[in-house]
Amino acid sequence: LNKPEWYLTQVLMWIGNHAKFLDDKIQPILDKAGSSVNAGLEFSRGLVMLILEKLAADIPCLLYDDTLFCHLVDEVLLFERELYSVHGYLSSFPSCMHILSEESCFQRWLTVEKKFALQKMDSMLSSEAAWISQYKDITDVDEMKVPDCAETFMTLLLVITDRYKNLPTASRKLQFLGLQKELVDDFRIRLTQVMKEETRASLGFRYCAILNAVNYIATVLADWADNV
């Protein structure tokens, strides 16, 4: 259960290793018979069906082990990325995202995603470099003087989007968007709390850093407004 990458990588290897044989030897037979079947894609689809069976059997066994469950999700997302980008798998075919979208698994994924995001926010705001810009010494890069915590937070949101963007239904994507909105609000509250501590020194370094953080986050969210 702790090594889903073993069978996921094995399947990717089988798909890659058989591609030439299927294209050179099997596809011409199908073409000659007037079939519209793509041998390579059908081979991939058959192997993915095996993975779906394996996942359906494994997931109930690790649903409440955060570490194992997170590792499984991470490996499945990597597998899916390579399956589509390297091997040309079709989005209309069955995929692992359908398994991750099933109610019990999906709700667990959301819960765990939120838990680890909040932990990441705790660590980024308690860091000594939280209010310092990574690029403070490079003037032409750092026009907005973005503190490290704001940049890390927006990267966190971007990573979450990247993880859920291939979910098969809009309703599931919207649930993840709801989580991101919660995180933005949580971050706003945290910034407000820090700001209240700094009101005596409203021209101080940290107070200005908070304003820069808010400006940066608002600007990036406005840029993302076109991303359906």
From TrEMBL:
It holds the Pfam family RINT1_TIP1. GO terms for cellular component: Dsl1/NZR complex. Transmembrane segments: none annotated. GO terms for biological process: endoplasmic reticulum to Golgi vesicle-mediated transport; regulation of ER to Golgi vesicle-mediated transport; retrograde vesicle-mediated transport, Golgi to endoplasmic reticulum. It comes from the Eukaryota. This is RINT1 protein. It comes from Pterocles burchelli.
